[in-house]
Structures are given as structure tokens and as C-alpha cells.
Design goal:
Elements: H1 12-28, H2 39-59, H3 63-89, H4 95-121, H5 130-140, H6 143-149, E1 161-166, E2 170-173, E3 178-185, E4 191-200, E5 205-210, E6 218-219, E7 224-226, E8 231-242, E9 245-254, E10 261-266, E11 271-274, E12 284-286, E13 289-294, E14 314-315, E15 320-323, E16 331-337, E17 354-357, E18 363-372, E19 383-389, E20 395-402, E21 413-419, E22 424-431, E23 437-439, E24 444-445, E25 455-461, E26 466-471, H7 480-511
Parallel strand pairs: 1-12, 2-13, 14-19
Antiparallel strand pairs: 1-3, 3-9, 4-8, 4-10, 4-11, 5-9, 6-8, 7-8, 10-13, 15-17, 16-18, 18-19, 20-21, 21-24, 22-23, 22-25, 25-26
Helix pairs in contact: 1-2, 1-4, 2-3, 3-4, 4-5, 4-6
Length: 512
């Protein structure tokens, strides 16, 4: 259930630096040939030095040696940044390329700053668990570079940070699989790391711990749980920090026995760190959630969606169908909201039983519903259904085909990157009329090394939207095979001319 850091390849900072190297090699491939032993060579040497020194530092045993090599990697990044500015001034780079590289350098710099600071202090760390210490080492301390670029003093703690569950203190049906989202409300603070331990009692049969739609984008380990300790762990961070309300992760669980009560809570060992450059633990408000277990058919409304049946899946269909069984004489109140904590008022809403939500924009919505039976004073518990909509295709940051004598045996390869509001599910490469080939990450070595067919690079998001970039085939005189034939023809032609000249000379000598 855990994902341990066993190799330098598991370090996010090494992965980012390696991706940066691929990006630099692809872009410098288009630099003027006159820069082969100038900027091209210097930038490639600098960017390779970054990931190489990180790998070397990870392998070292002493703290002093680790910091030494990590610092050398940091210096190589600064050297590369200077060379990038020179390249831009010489008009070797497009503005979009320059921005992409600078963002990648800044991200790697922030991560390196974190690993250097954490390595310096992990030997006397008294505050954090081993997991949060590793998190700080590989991902989190982004404050210093961030505020050296944007020199605005950070505010201290405004109030306590709240940890809570959605749904909170509700009723659930025995035998159903329940999803409890773990939420954080920073209440004006900015945070950048969490080490959260969720407790669950014997009434909870925990099925999985997940990180869907999490505000965290750096994970020390995958969410995990142990039925021995009855604890679930969520340890990760957020580059640049986070302020507001957002999801940490989810617990999926069930209970087969009606009539009982299940409880989820947060351990006192849970830690949330402020984005203040010191790793200060925030004061926490931990909210427990109790769930009354009802028998099937008892109490709760059965709310379903034919158009969006899976609450955890993204859909590109903006029209949502929702339905629930109605009771004669009962009234219903409902609302559609982006706020998971907002509840419907006590006003009657119509129509009931089967409704259609029209043309929702991209985002995550919650449909909340409650019922009041004829003759009863109180309302039922509120039931909620999550709806995730993404109609927008991904946007490419870069998509190109390159060849370099120092990479992948001088073969043509495709490099690409895209962004999406939901997430990129996968990429596909289509060469000519061949079937699409799924690709998780670049680069991709082309099968058709003659470049005689067009190449389509496709980015597909979690909702099924996609965007294509089509790179045309080379014209016939640019193709490697034609160039090779021309070279062979020239050599053969020159050899024949030389042979004819020699024969003529020999014959003239004989005639004399």
C-alpha cells in the first residue's frame, strides 16, 4: 500500500530535472549550427548536470556530501537560466518556449531548495513524522524561491485550519459503499504540506484510501490504511502553497449492519504546515463525523443519475439527469452548488422526482436534496450527489519532432506536453494510417524514421475530450532515405568520373 523512495528516480525533483533535460535537448536542436559548440553545448551540459548531481547526492551517505551535490545541481540550474536569457535575447527562442523553460527551472529550483533545507535539518527534526520529513526533503519548501522572486512578506497564522469530512454527521444505508471526502479549510492561512492520520472505528469496513481531485500535487507516499491500527494516512504537499477549501483525499467504506453508528476522526498526530518558510505547524480544528447506519429502504432518499452514473468520473456532457422515488404528499427542497457544505433551505422546489440540469459550465457540482413527508414536522437528512463536468479539450504547451546525435541514437522522437482543467489521462501517437498507440509520458521514438507520413500527437483528458496536433511528413527531398540515396549516388558518380578520368589518362599514355 506504500510507495517508498528507494532510488533517485523516485525523487520528484529528479523526475522534473530529467524532463527539463529532454525539453532543452529538443529545443536546442533548432539552434543555429554555429552554436553547436557554444550555447547548445553549454545548455545541454548544464541541464544534464542538474539531474546527475541530484542522483549523486541521493547516493551519498553523509548529510554534508548530499547537500554539496544538491547545491551543485542548484548552481547548474542558475547557469542554465542565464543561458536561457541569452538565447532569448539572440531570438533563438519563442516567447512561449522561454516561458515554459523558465517555469520548469523555477519549479526544479523550488524543489531543490526544499531538499537542501530539509537535508540540513532532518537530523534534529523534533516536530514531524518521518513521512513529513521526507516530504519536506523532496518536495515542499517552496517558500524561499517564491518570495525571492515575488518579495511580499507572508502573513502569519490567521486562525486555525479546519479538517472535516463531507458528508458530515449523516445517515447512510447498510451495505452501500460510502465515499467520505477529507476536506481542509485553511480559513485565511496558506499551507503547503500535510501529514494527516484519519481514525476509523470497528463499525467501518474500510475499502480504499484515494487522492482523487486532491489539492496536493506532491506525494511522499500513496494514501494508505491499516486495519491493525485502524488508521488511514495522507502525506503530501502543494507547490506554491494553497489557501481556501479543498479536498485532501477520500475514504471508501461500508457497514453491513443496520442500527449502529460509524465514526471517522482525525488523530492529534495530524500535522498541517504553513507556507511561511519555517514549516510552522498550523493550529488545527479537527471535526469528527458520525454516520447512522440505516437499513435499506429506511429513511434516506435514493438519488441517482442516468447521465452521470459515476460520481468520481469526469463527463463532457453538460446536461445532467437526476431522479429519485417520490412519496405522495411529500415535498422536496434541493439546490445545485459548487460548495460541498451548502445545504438546501426549507422552501418547496419543483419539479420533483425527475429533473434536468441544463448547460452546466466546467467544474465540480453538488446536488443536495431533502424530503418532508406529509404530516411530519421535520425534514429528512440531506443526500448529496457529486457531478464532475469538463467540456474543454486539453491545451498543448509543446508538440514537436526532433532528432539529436546525442539522444536516442540519433533517431526521430516526439516530445510533447499538455494541460487540462481535470487531468490528462493519456497521450496517443498516430503515424500515418496506423492505429493509435497509447503513451503515458514523452518522449516517443517514432517507428517511421523516414518521416514519410504525418504524425498526430493526441492529448486525451479524463472526460474523454481530446486535442490533436498534426506534424506533416517531410517533403521527399528532406527524408533520410532520399538523402542517403543522394549521398550514395554522389559517391558512386564521383567514383565513376574518377574511373573514366583514369582510363582516359592511361589510354593517352599508351597512345604516346
Amino acid at each position: 500500500m506504500k510507495s517508498e523512495i528507494k532510488s533517485f528516480r523516485d525523487l520528484i525533483v529528479w523526475q522534473k530535472s530529467s524532463n527539463l533535460a529532454t525539453l532543452i535537448y529538443g529545443i536546442t536542436n533548432d539552434f543555429p549550427k554555429s552554436e553547436m559548440y557554444g550555447l547548445t553545448s553549454q545548455m545541454r551540459r548544464a541541464v544534464v548536470s542538474v539531474s546527475s548531481n541530484i542522483a549523486e547526492g541521493f547516493k551519498r551517505n553523509s548529510r554534508k556530501e548530499k547537500v554539496q551535490f544538491y547545491t551543485m545541481a542548484y548552481g547548474s540550474l542558475s547557469e542554465l537560466e542565464s543561458q536561457i536569457d541569452i538565447s532569448k535575447n539572440l531570438h533563438y527562442l519563442l516567447e512561449s518556449q522561454y516561458q515554459t523553460i523558465i517555469e520548469a527551472i523555477n519549479e526544479a529550483s523550488r524543489l531543490l531548495d526544499g531538499i537542501i533545507r530539509a537535508t540540513n535539518r532532518t537530523h534534529n527534526d523534533r516536530f514531524f513524522s518521518p513521512a513529513i520529513s521526507v516530504l519536506l526533503a523532496v518536495a515542499i519548501s517552496v517558500f524561499y524561491i517564491q518570495y525571492s522572486i515575488f518579495p511580499t512578506a507572508p502573513a502569519g497564522a490567521v486562525s486555525s485550519v479546519r479538517l472535516f469530512f463531507i458528508p458530515e454527521n449523516s445517515e447512510v444505508v447498510a451495505g452501500d459503499i460510502i465515499k467520505s471526502d477529507i476536506w481542509v479549510d485553511t480559513q485565511g492561512n496558506t499551507i503547503n504540506a500535510v501529514d494527516i492520520s484519519v481514525s476509523y472505528d470497528s463499525m467501518v469496513e474500510l475499502l480504499s484510501a484515494e487522492k482523487n481531485d486532491s489539492i496536493l500535487n506532491l506525494w511522499v507516499e500513496e494514501p494508505s490504511f491499516s486495519d491493525t491500527t485502524r488508521r488511514a494516512k495522507f502525506t503530501g504537499g502543494r507547490t506554491g502553497g494553497f489557501e481556501g477549501r479543498g479536498i485532501i483525499g477520500q475514504l471508501y467504506w461500508r457497514n453491513e449492519n443496520a442500527g449502529g453508528k460509524a465514526t471517522l476522526g482525525f488523530d492529534e498526530s495530524s500535522v498541517v504546515l504553513l507556507n511561511d518558510g519555517l514549516g510552522t505547524p498550523a493550529e488545527l480544528e479537527r471535526r469528527q463525523s458520525d454516520y447512522n447506519i440505516l437499513a435499506k429502504g429506511e429513511g434516506l432518499l435514493n438519488l441517482s443519475s442516468a447521465s452521470h452514473p459515476d460520481e468520481n468520473k469526469w463527463y463532457n456532457q453538460p446536461f445532467v439527469r437526476l431522479s429519485w422515488p417520490t412519496i405522495e404528499g411529500a415535498i422536496y427542497s434541493y439546490l445545485v452548488t459548487r460548495d460541498p457544505a451548502q445545504l438546501p433551505d426549507d422552501t418547496l422546489d419543483e419539479p420533483v422526482g425527475n429533473i434536468k440540469l441544463s448547460d452546466l459550465t466546467d467544474g465540480v457540482y453538488y446536488f443536495k436534496l431533502k424530503q418532508k413527508k406529509l404530516g411530519e414536522e421535520g425534514w429528512s437528512s440531506v443526500v448529496s450527489r457529486q457531478i464532475k463536468i469538463d467540456k474543454t479539450p486539453p491545451e498543448f504547451i509543446e508538440a514537436k519532432i526532433s532528432r539529436d546525435s546525442e539522444l536516442v541514437q540519433n533517431k526521430y522522437f516526439a516530445s510533447f506536453a499538455a494541460n487540462d482543467k481535470a487531468s490528462i489521462a493519456r497521450y496517443e501517437i498516430i503515424e500515418g494510417d496506423s492505429a493509435p498507440e497509447p503513451i503515458l509520458q514523452p518522449p516517443f521514438i517514432l517507428k517511421n524514421q523516414d518521416r514519410s507520413v504525418a504524425v498526430t500527437i493526441r492529448a486525451i483528458d479524463a472526460a474523454g475530450n481530446y486535442k490533436d496536433i498534426i506534424i506533416p511528413a517531410l517533403t521527399w527531398w528532406q527524408r533520410p532515405s532520399i538523402i542517403l540515396y543522394v549521398k550514395i549516388g554522389l559517391i558512386v558518380g564521383l567514383a565513376l568520373i574518377a574511373a573514366v578520368i583514369i582510363i582516359v589518362i592511361i589510354r593517352r599514355k599508351k597512345s604516346i
